[in-house]
Amino acid sequence: MLNDKSVLVTGGTGSFGKAFVRTVLARYPDIRRLVIYSRDELKQFEMAQVFPRSDYPALRYFLGDVRDEARLRRALEGIDVVVHAAALKQVPAAEYNPFECIKTNVLGAQNLIEACLDSKVERVVALSTDKAAAPINLYGATKLCSDKLFVAANNIKGARDIRFSVVRYGNVMGSRGSVIPFFMAKKGDGVLPITDPRMTRFNISLQDGVEMVLWSIENAIGGEVLVPKIPSYRIGDVATAIAPEAEQKVIGIRPGEKIHEEMITASDSFNTVDMGEYYAILPVSAEYSIEDYCRQHGGEPVEPGFAYSSGSNPDFLDVEQIRALIDEHVVGQTID
Fold this sequence. Notes:
single chain, Rossmann fold, 36% helix, 336 residues
């Protein structure tokens, strides 16, 4: 799929970017070029120690910000596939610095869309978040706006051979700034701060996120928001899995947080298709009906009123399952 192709990853030095690069280099030895586009030269330097150009001649490290459309255009020369992972994603920081989040997550998304439309890019996959469904915080609102921009970009592609799609998934196990590394760092204190014992979240491994993006590059027809079927966990069970002897101190939810996250709302159900491993939320303005989509690409429409929430998810991880997944997926860390 990606052999003899040139691929650019925005936010390529983040947790997803590194996992994506590792997988692509192993799976597609004949990839023509793999460009890491990000704004932090130190992270690029550190990543280059793990993936040096001498061992991986297809790799390029390109300094730039998605806020800079001219730089994006330069980086996209000769690129066939774009994976958009760059974002400001810390909820409290976004609440305190709202327009900075908008500049990166919304204006940066539109900059990328415009630059892709003016280049020879064929596929664009943008990463989203469960917080974009019925958002109550600014980060979620910016990602919902970004999703809408990428979906609508298919309306203005004209005769260009380009497809824009979105993948939306929940908390990535072990990613920077997420709860599992935070709890693991705190377990030696004997007290773990719990926002609310009722709180639940979706859970996905970095590798499963990578596989979903690769699936979307190959299979998305443009305009879908793809959602994986993944398990949920209770925040208290995560704390117990990591530090069973530690006290769990309830501190209350932070500004902009939900008790349960959603990935598909009841309002989305009328445009949602069950694809088996994934759900596909189709654009309301699609040129084809949901029946046409199912007939041509497989799947079945979900029931009207269907919603996909971490709190009502039929698939919940127990403490031992969480412990095993952390041992497997949180690199360099083990639970005693």
